[in-house]
Amino acid sequence: MIRKLMPFLSKYKLAAILSPLMMVGEVFTEVRIPILMATIVDEYIPVGNTQNVMETGLLMIGMALMSLCFGAMGSYFSSKAAMGFGAELRGAMFSKIQGFSFSNVDKFSTASLVTRMTTDVTRIQMAVVMILRVCVRAPVMFVSALTMAYSVNQSLIMVLAFAIPVLAIGIAIFMSMAYPRFIVMFKKYDKLNAVVQENLIAIRAVKAYVREKFEKSKFAKVNDELMEFSIKAEKVMIFGDPLMMIVMFSCIISVLWLGGRQIVFGQMEVGALTSFLTYITQILMSLLMVSMVFVMLVMSKASAARIVEVLEEESGLKDGEKMISEVKDGSVEFKNVSFRYNSDSENNVLENINLSIKSGETIGIIGGTGSSKSTLVQLIPRLYDVTQGQVLVGGEDVKDYSLEALRNSVAMVLQKNVLFSGTIRDNLRWGDENATDEEIEAACKAAQAHDFIVSFPDGYDTDLGQGGVNVSGGQKQRLCIARALLKKPKIIILDDSTSAVDTATDAKIRQAFRENFGHITAIIIAQRVTSIMDADRIIVLEDGKINGFGTHEELLKTNEIYSQIYYSQQKGVEE
Questions:
Q1: Phi and psi at residue 249, in whole multiples of 5°?
Q2: Nearest-angstrom CA–CA distance, 383 and 199
Q3: How confident is the model at residue 76, as a pLDDT?
Q4: What span, in angstroms and rounded, lies between the C-alpha atoms of 434 and 369?
Q5: Could you tell me which of 261, 394, 526, 563 has the fewest CB atoms within 10 Å of its CB?
Q6: Is the pLDDT of residue 222 over 90?
Q7: What's 68's DSSP letter?
C-alpha cells in the first residue's frame, strides 16, 4: 500500500527531506536548554556568578529562538509536501476514474468515489504531515532526552522501564481494535454522501412533491448511523489519552519522590532534578506523540486502502490491440450479441442480437420500458463491452479501435441530458473545441435551438449555471443534440432525446437531419412512433430481444407490438 502511494510524493521529495532535517535541528537545540538551566541553578546562582548567569541565559534564549525557527521551517516543508502529495493523489484518482467504464463506476458508486477523493485523501494528507514531523521528531526526541536524562541521573532513569512497556502494549491493543471500526465508519460516510448527492440533484422533485420532511428524516437516519459508528471507532482511541496521562503523571510523581529523597541525602542537586523532570516530560511527550501518530495511521490506513482500491482498479475497457485510429464509415453490425451488466447475473439483459445497419441509414428503436433500448446503443461506443458476440463499426470490431477514435466518430445524446456550468457556447464546444461561430450556429439551427438561444439577452454567451438550470428540459435536449452534431460524427445516437420537445419541433429536427445530415448513420430511440416512423428501418425490442425489424409499413402489417403502440398513440391523437 505504501509502495503504491509513495510515487505521488516524489515531486515534493526535497520538502519531504528538509522537513525531518528541520525537526532534528529543533530537537537538538531544545534538549540542550534544560541542562543549561541546571548549570545556572546548581553552579552559578549558589556562588553569585551573575555574568555567567546572564551569558548562559542569553544562550538559552538563542537556542530557544533557533528551535522555534527549525520548528517553523519543519512545519512549512511538511505542509508543502503533504498538500502537494494530496494534490497529486487526487489528480491521479480523477484521471483513473476518467478511464473507468460504466461498470467500474457502478462498482464503487459515485458517492463513494467522491468520499475517497475528498475525506480519504484529506486523512492521508494529515498522516503525511504527522509522519514527516512527528515520526522523526518523536524518536529523535526520545533518544536525545533519554541520553541527557541518563547523563544527569542513572538511577532515576529506571522509572521508564515500567512506563514504556505499558504504553507499547496499550497502543498495540487500541490499533488492532480500531482499524475494523474505521473501515465501517468510512462506509457510513459513503452512504451519507449518497443521500446528500441524491437530494441536491433531485431538489426540484423534492420540493414539487413536498418531500422535505421525508428527506430530512432519511438524512437524519444516515447521519445518526455515521455518528454512532464514529463514536464506536473513536471510543477505542479515547482510552489512549487517559492511559498516557496516568503513565506520565505516575512517572513524574515517582521521579519527584525518588529525586526528592536523593536531594535530602545530598545525592542530587535541585537544578539536576529540575532538568531531569524536563527530560522525563520530553520523553513521555515523545511517546504521546508516537501514540497520536499511531492513531492517525490507523485512520489513514483505512483511507489508504480505499484509495489504493481505486488506483488498482482496472478499467473493463481498454484500447484494442490493433489500435485502429480511424472509423471508415457509419455502418454498424451486431453479431450474436448478448450482454449482462454483472458476470454474476443469471440472465442476460440483451440476448442473441443480430443486426446489420448500413452507413447513412436512419434506424428507429422502440419498445417497452425495460426492453434494454439504451443498453443496446451503449455497446456501439463501448460504454459497456459485450458479454458474448461482436459489435462492428465501419466493418471492424469496436474492441480493435482506440477508444478515442471510436468515440470521436460516435456522437451520443444520452437519455439524461447533461450540461455543465459555463456559457451555452462553452457547452456546445464540447462537441468541437475549435468550432467556429458559424458552425455552432448551423448546428443549433439544425437542432432547432438557435431561436431560443438568441432570445436570451446574452445569446450564446448566456451562463447556464450548474447542470443547465436556466433552460427547460426541451431546450436542454436541443442543446445536447447541437453539441453532438458539432462532433461531425459518422454515427449519431439519440436516446429518447426529443421526449421533452413538442411534435412540431421534433418534426423540424428530423427534417433537418434528412436534409443536412443524410450521410450520418442516425439511431433514434423514441417512445413516440411519430419520431421514428419515417426512419429507413425500425427495431422493435422486447425483453432484450429483437421482436421485429423493418420499415414502418412492414411492421404495421407483421408486428403486433409495433402496431399496438402505433394505434394506441394514434387513438390518443385523434381523441
A1: -70, -30
A2: 26
A3: 92
A4: 39
A5: 261
A6: no
A7: H
pLDDT band at 530 (very low <50, low <70, confident <90, very high): confident
Q: Can you tell me the mean pLDDT for 229-238?
A: 72
Q: State the residue for C-alpha cell 437531419.
A: 513
Q: Yes or no: say if 360 and 519 are a contact pair by the CB < 8 Å rule.
A: yes
SS3 state at 269:
coil
Contacts of 45 (CB under 8 A, 6+ apart): 53
Please measure the distance between the N-terminal and C-terminal CA atoms of the chain and give it in whole angstroms: 67
CA dist 139 → 248, 283, 290 (Å): 17, 9, 8
The number of beta carbons lying within 10 Å of the beta carbon of residue 526 is 22
Residues 179-198: tens digit of each pLDDT: 677 777 777 877 887 888 77
Res. 281: pLDDT tops 90? no
Q: How confident is the model at residue 391 (pLDDT cuts 50, 70, 90)?
A: very high
Q: Give the CA distances from residue 333 to residues 80, 379, 394, in Å, rounded to whole numbers and listed in that order.
A: 54, 11, 9
Nearest residue to 464 (alpha-carbon basis) of 411, 416, 418, 496: 418
β partners of residue 423: 463
CA distance 79 to 19: 9
Q: Say how far apart CA 414 and CA 373 lie, in whole Å.
A: 12
Percent of the chain that is helix, strand, coil (3-state, to 5): 65, 10, 25
User: What 3-state DSSP class applies to 462?
Assistant: coil
**Helices marked H in 321-436 — which ranges?**
373-378, 403-409, 424-428
Q: Is the pTM of this model over 0.70?
A: no
Looking up cell 450540461 gives 419
Distance CA 282, CA 284 (A): 5
CB 334 within 8 A of CB 389: yes
* Position with higher pLDDT, 235 vs 530: 530
Distances (CA, A) of 183 to 174, 177, 191, 224, 502: 15, 11, 13, 17, 51
Q: How far apart are CA 554 and CA 536, in angstroms?
A: 11
Q: Is residue 189 within 8 Å of residue 115, measured between CB atoms? A: yes
* Cβ–Cβ under 8 Å, residues 392 and 335: yes
The per-residue pLDDT for range 4-52, each reduced to its tens digit, is: 888 888 889 899 999 999 999 999 898 888 888 888 888 888 878 888 8
- Using a 10 angstrom Cβ sphere, with 0-12 exposed, 13-18 middle and 19 or more buried, the burial of residue 268 is buried
pLDDT at 575 over 70: no
